[in-house]
Amino acid sequence: MRCIKTELYFGVDEPGGKQVGPKAWRDFLGQEVTPRFPRGMTVVEAYGQMQHRSGNIERQATRIIVLVHKPTPAAGRQISEIIGLYRSRFENAQVMRLRMPVLADFFTD
Predict the structure, then answer these.
(1) DSSP 8-77
(2) Which site in 18, 39, 55, 65 is 20 to 30 Å from 31, CA atoms measured?
(3) CA neighbor of 66 nearest in space, from 8, 1, 4, 105
């Protein structure tokens, strides 16, 4: 089946030295991501770094959500909502989105 694979990379550092903790992350998944993509997702704990315009390199823990979904406008809107809600809830924490077409076969019960 032709699908889109979307990877969302969520930085856990918030301005002021705070971090998005495990409970806040679980709450965000349960309240915002799962209702929009109830058929499933994969979450990966990772480490990331990026260089800012200033030249400074920022290193931080990162959480990745992998979604495989149909290429619909509704799915695109839902992903944009998730990004906006995360940045709003966690004081503009960094998010990166990758999208790519994939052929997916699901083997379930």
Answers:
(1) EEEE-B-GGG-B--HHHHHHHIIIIITTT-TT--EEEEEEEEEE-TTSPEEEEEEEEEEEEE---HHHHH
(2) 18
(3) 8
Q: What angle do CA 8, 13, 15 make, to 5 degrees?
A: 125
Residues of the chain scoring pLDDT < 70: none
CATH architecture of the domain with residue range 2-96: 2-Layer Sandwich (3.30)
Q: Which amino acid is at 94?
A: Q
Q: What is the pLDDT of residue 31?
A: 97
CA 69 to chain centre: 14
Among the listed residues 7, 3, 5, the one whose alpha carbon sits nearest the alpha carbon of residue 95: 7
The pLDDT value recorded for residue 1 is 82
Q: Is 14 exposed, middle or buried (0-12, 13-18, 19+ CB in 10 A)?
A: middle
**36 close to 78: Cβ distance less than 8 angstroms:** yes
